[in-house]
Task: inverse folding
C-alpha cells in the first residue's frame, strides 16, 4: 500500500470576497506527480497555500505526512517553490549560496546556525543543478531562469519528500521552462519525490503528471492522467483543444 | 589641539564609546528594516520617544532615569505598529503614521500642561551625545550587548523573513515572533539613539549606513558588516569634526553618513561602468 503524503477532508477556505475553496477531499500518495489545473480564481494556489499554512483553513482538515497541518513542524520534508519574480527584491544583497543555505534552517533548532557541512551540502546541490559557477553572485543580478533554478535549489536543499510548485515558470521563456520541467520530472522519477504542480502550462502537465486535479472552487476531477484524458466532462470544462494538447503530449 | 588631547576629555571618551555602540546597533538593524521597507519605523518610534520623554520630564525623571518611562512606552508602541499592520488591514506606513502622531501629540499636550517646552525636552529633538553621563554609557553598553546577543541568536530567522516572509514561514520560522523581535530591538535602539542624534535625525542613523552598504555589498553578511563599519566610523569622525569645528555633533554625524552614501553610490556607479565595458 502506498504511503499517504497529503490528505484533505472537506477542506474550505475563504477570503474577504467569499468562499474560494470548498469541500476539497483528496489524498496524495508517495511518488505521485499531481497536475493541478482549473480556470483563474478556481482556488488552485489557495489549496497548496492552505496545505502549508500560508492561507487559513476555515473548514475541514488537512494532513501532511499523517499530521494535522496546523501541528505540522517537520518543514524540512517539504520544498515549496512559488512564482519566482514577485519573490525577489532586486536590491537584496544575498548571494546564491546564502539564499539556498537559508532553506536549511527548517531542519535546525534555535539558534539555527549553519555548519561547514551545510555549506558543503549547498555547494554539492548547486553543482548538481548546474549553478555552482554563480554561487557567489547576488540573486538580483541573475536572469529569470537562473533565479528560478536558485529557488528550486532552495526548495530541494533539505532532500524533501514533497515538492509544491505554485506556477513556478510563469515568467520564464519556453526553453528555460522546458528544462525546468525536465529537472522536476527527473527528481520525481529518480528520487521518488511527490510533486504538486499548479500551472496553466498544459504541455508540461501532459508530459509529466501521473494524476490530475481539476478545481473550480471544488474538486471537479481527481484521478489518473489517462482517465482525465478520456473524460468527456473534462473535455467540456477544460476545453477539448486544451485537453487534446495536453493528452497527446504536445 | 591634537587627537590625544581631545581624547583626554572624559565627555569625549563617553561620547565615543556610547555613540559608536549605538550607531553600530542602528546600522545593523537598519539593513533589515530597509530591506523590509520598514525604514520609517525609526521615525515613528522617535516621535513616540518624544512623547515618553515629555512624560518622564513631567514625572521629574531626568537623564538615565527617563529610560524607565521611555523604554516600556516605545517597546509597547513598536508592538502596536506591528499589531495595527497585522490586524487593522493597514500598510506599515499608515500604522507608523498613527503611532507617530499619537506620540507627538501626547508630548505636546504634556509639555503644554507642564508649562510649555523647556530645554530638556528640546534636547531630545536634536540629541547631545557630548552630554552623555557615565550612567547612560553603562546603560548603552548593557543594551548594546543584549541587542547584539539577540541579533546573533535570531540572525538566520531575521535573514529568512527579510529575504521572503512566505518562504520563511514554510521553513518553520515563526514570522510573527521574529517580526516582534525586530521591532522591539529597533525600539530599544531608537531610545538609545535619541541621545546621539535626537528625534529629528534618528532615521538617518537607521537608513544611511544600510543604503550605503547596499550599494557595494557582495553578500548579506557583508552588507551587515559594512553598515556597522559606516555607522561606527561616522560617529567617531562626527564627534572629532564637530568638536574641532564647533558644530552640532548630531547633524555632523548625519552629514558624514550622507557623504559616505554618496561615496558608496559613486563606487557602485564606477563598478557598473567598468563591468559594462
Result:
Amino acid at each position: 500500500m502506498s504511503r499517504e503524503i497529503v490528505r484533505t477532508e472537506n477542506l474550505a477556505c475563504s477570503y474577504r470576497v467569499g468562499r474560494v475553496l470548498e469541500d476539497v477531499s483528496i489524498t496524495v500518495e508517495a511518488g505521485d506527480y499531481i497536475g493541478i489545473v482549473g480556470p483563474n480564481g478556481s482556488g488552485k494556489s489557495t489549496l497548496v497555500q492552505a496545505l502549508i499554512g500560508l492561507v487559513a483553513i476555515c473548514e475541514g482538515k488537512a494532513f501532511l505526512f499523517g499530521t494535522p497541518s496546523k501541528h505540522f513542524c517537520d518543514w524540512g520534508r517539504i520544498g515549496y517553490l512559488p512564482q519566482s519574480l514577485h519573490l525577489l527584491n532586486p536590491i537584496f544583497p544575498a548571494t546564491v549560496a546564502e539564499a539556498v543555505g537559508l532553506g536549511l534552517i527548517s531542519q535546525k533548532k534555535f539558534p539555527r546556525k549553519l555548519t561547514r557541512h551545510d555549506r558543503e551540502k549547498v555547494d554539492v546541490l548547486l553543482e548538481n543543478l548546474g549553478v555552482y559557477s554563480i554561487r557567489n553572485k547576488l540573486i538580483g543580478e541573475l536572469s529569470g531562469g537562473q533565479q528560478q533554478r536558485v529557488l528550486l535549489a532552495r526548495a530541494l536543499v533539505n532532500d524533501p519528500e514533497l515538492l509544491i510548485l505554485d506556477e513556478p515558470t510563469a515568467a520564464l521563456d519556453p526553453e528555460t521552462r522546458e528544462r525546468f520541467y525536465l529537472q522536476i520530472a527527473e527528481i520525481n522519477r529518480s528520487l521518488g519525490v511527490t510533486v504538486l504542480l499548479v500551472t496553466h502550462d498544459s504541455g508540461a502537465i501532459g508530459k509529466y503528471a501521473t494524476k490530475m486535479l481539476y478545481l473550480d472552487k471544488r474538486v471537479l476531477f481527481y484521478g489518473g492522467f489517462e482517465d482525465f484524458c478520456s473524460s468527456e466532462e473534462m473535455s467540456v470544462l477544460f476545453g477539448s483543444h486544451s485537453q487534446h494538447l495536453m493528452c497527446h503530449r504536445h | 589641539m591634537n587627537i590625544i588631547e581631545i581624547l583626554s576629555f572624559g565627555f569625549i571618551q563617553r561620547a565615543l564609546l556610547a555613540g559608536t555602540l549605538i550607531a553600530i546597533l542602528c546600522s545593523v538593524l537598519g539593513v533589515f528594516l530597509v530591506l523590509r521597507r520598514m525604514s520609517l519605523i525609526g521615525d515613528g518610534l522617535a516621535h513616540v520617544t518624544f512623547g515618553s520623554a515629555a512624560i518622564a520630564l513631567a514625572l521629574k525623571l531626568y537623564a538615565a532615569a527617563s529610560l524607565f518611562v521611555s523604554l516600556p512606552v516605545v517597546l509597547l508602541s513598536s508592538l502596536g505598529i506591528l499589531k495595527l499592520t497585522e490586524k487593522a488591514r493597514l500598510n506599515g506606513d499608515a500604522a507608523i503614521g498613527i503611532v507617530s502622531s499619537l506620540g507627538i501629540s501626547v508630548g505636546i499636550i504634556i509639555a503644554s500642561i507642564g508649562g510649555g517646552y523647556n530645554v530638556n525636552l528640546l534636547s531630545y529633538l536634536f540629541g547631545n551625545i557630548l552630554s552623555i553621563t557615565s550612567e547612560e554609557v553603562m546603560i548603552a553598553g548593557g543594551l548594546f550587548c543584549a541587542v547584539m546577543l539577540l541579533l546573533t541568536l535570531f540572525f538566520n530567522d531575521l535573514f529568512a523573513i527579510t529575504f521572503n516572509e512566505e518562504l520563511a514561514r514554510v521553513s518553520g520560522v515563526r514570522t510573527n515572533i521574529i517580526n516582534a523581535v525586530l521591532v522591539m530591538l529597533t525600539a530599544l535602539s531608537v531610545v538609545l539613539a535619541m541621545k546621539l542624534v535626537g528625534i529629528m535625525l534618528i532615521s538617518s542613523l537607521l537608513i544611511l549606513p544600510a543604503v550605503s552598504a547596499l550599494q557595494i555589498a557582495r553578500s548579506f553578511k557583508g552588507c551587515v558588516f559594512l553598515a556597522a563599519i559606516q555607522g561606527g566610523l561616522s560617529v567617531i569622525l562626527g564627534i572629532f569634526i564637530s568638536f574641532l569645528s564647533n558644530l552640532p555633533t548630531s547633524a555632523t554625524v548625519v552629514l558624514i553618513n550622507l557623504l559616505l552614501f554618496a561615496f558608496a553610490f559613486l563606487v557602485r556607479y564606477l563598478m557598473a561602468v567598468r563591468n559594462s565595458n
Summary: The radius of gyration of chain B is 19 Å.
